[in-house]
Write a structure and sequence with these properties.
single chain, mainly alpha, Growth Hormone, Chain: A, 15 helices
Length: about 450
């Protein structure tokens, strides 16, 4: 029997890995800088709570294009060459980076421009998400797909680790520099995607009507309760536990660590995540994957609560002496909590993505990937919006703590509603994946 190849021994996957890494580096660098600029511009004329509200609006600006375009993008990913969809999306992101680089260089950055670029980035992500998710399984043999997913997650998490820190340091040096570097990284990603050779495709089954084909992704997720449970758990848990949206508030007004500290805070969860991803690339999960995902989400919620309680004024409640202007103990607690949060989230991502990819037929991976992207983006962008709006109402600390508690409660509820998650022992799907396609009505 031939030895199972490592994903990096496959040329197409190596190019895919580098494209994903460079794209994520650029995206995360831009996201952190856009969030900082929005909060900074709003803070110049408003209070903390009102400025936090604008952070929530940025999340909405990125999510609305995803909501409007996800079904179309998934259908396109199953009908059109997925490589070209990804290339086009990266090109749009490069244009956004160049626009903000020029505006920042000439000091013409405004809130309307930042919101417009955030919306365009949402459009690009709406198409990039399903195409890239559906493309990865076409590049490697099925036997190494879980390992390839782990390596893909490493690329994403490495970009998440380095991107915010890079963006924070570059922004501290010059406001236009992070956008210029992001534009170069997007260009490199486009080149890597162009090096991926032709990949096999599976003919789309079911209804001939395009709109009905778009709905088949939703139908499949609804019918497959394991996939539905995994996707919806992430949606509601991260929707409530969106602590990262409050990082600019914590960096500037609570922990008082500035733009450089913001990069450290934003990188901390990704450091935990990449550590877990590296472990999985060496020792993949093989048993009780569903229960481990549920436990990971519960730990994610607990770490969110710990981060929320890292505010210096709250440390005396835990036996810490009053620290005055010294925020070092609070910063260390915040970094530790974010590290654990990122590691737990990586376990959830690893299990969820493996289940979704392996339990979905190839001809539907674009449409199911679109549903997954919509749910994941809903959890991220709407989670940021929820955190921003709640912070405007009750304060940032209370918003973060309440969100973490909500994520824990959702996990307990999902374990009961979706017993399929608790029963998922391995990543091995059934020999035949059952799906009843939407049928055309008789004329």
């Amino acid at each position: 029997m031939a030895a199972t190849p490592h994903p990096f021994s496959i040329h197409n996957f190596r190019a895919y890995f580098l494209a994903r890494l460079s794209t994520t580096l650029a995206q995360m660098s831009m996201v952190i800088v856009i969030g900082w600029q929005v909060y900074d511009l709003a803070r110049q004329s408003m209070g903390v709570r009102e400025s936090a509200f604008y952070l929530g609006l940025i999340g909405v600006a990125q999510f609305l294009p995803l909501l409007a375009l996800s079904l179309v993008a998934g259908w396109v990913a199953d009908r059109v060459d997925r490589r070209w969809i990804a290339r086009g999306s990266v090109a749009i992101e490069a244009g956004c980076a160049i626009t903000l680089a020029v505006a920042s260089y000439h000091e013409h950055v405004t809130l309307p421009l930042l919101f417009l670029v955030a919306a365009l980035l949402g459009v690009a992500r709406a198409y990039a998400g399903p195409s890239l998710q559906a493309l990865a399984p076409n590049l490697v043999p099925k036997a190494v797909l879980p390992t390839a997913i782990a390596m893909s997650s490493i690329a994403w998490q490495a970009g998440t680790v380095l991107g915010p820190t890079m963006g924070g340091y570059l922004y501290a040096a010059s406001h236009w520099l992070p956008y210029t570097v992001s534009a170069c990284l997007f260009s490199f990603a486009f080149l890597m995607l162009s090096l991926i050779g032709k990949v096999p495709r599976t003919a789309v089954r079911g209804a001939a009507n395009p709109f009905r084909q778009m709905l088949q992704g939703l139908s499949y997720v609804r019918q497959n309760r394991l996939v539905l449970g995994a996707i919806s758990l992430d949606l509601f848990a991260v929707l409530l536990g969106g602590a990262t949206a409050m990082l600019p508030v914590y960096a500037r007004d609570i922990l008082q660590v500035g733009a450089d500290g913001l990069g450290h805070l934003r990188a901390a969860p990704a450091v935990g995540a990449i550590a877990v991803a590296l472990w999985f690339s060496w020792r993949p999960l093989t048993t009780n994957v569903g229960v481990k995902m549920l436990l990971a989400v519960a730990i994610f919620g607990s770490a969110t609560v710990a981060f929320g309680l890292s505010a210096p004024a709250l440390l005396p409640l835990f036996g810490q002496e009053a620290i005055g202007h010294d925020t070092a103990p609070a910063v260390l607690l915040a970094l530790a909590a974010l590290f654990v949060l990122g590691g737990a989230d990586m376990v959830s991502v690893y299990v969820r993505q493996s289940l979704i990819q392996l339990y979905t037929p190839d001809d539907m991976r674009g449409r199911v990937g679109a549903v997954s992207t919509l749910f994941v983006s809903g959890s991220n962008e709407l989670g940021e919006a929820e955190s921003g709006f709640l912070a405007a109402a009750v304060g940032p600390v209370a918003a973060v703590v309440a969100g973490g508690i909500g994520a824990i409660l959702v996990t307990a509820l999902w374990a009961r509603i979706f017993p399929e998650l608790r029963r998922a022992r391995t990543f091995d799907p059934p020999e035949t994946l059952e799906f009843t396609p939407v049928k055309e009505k008789a004329a």
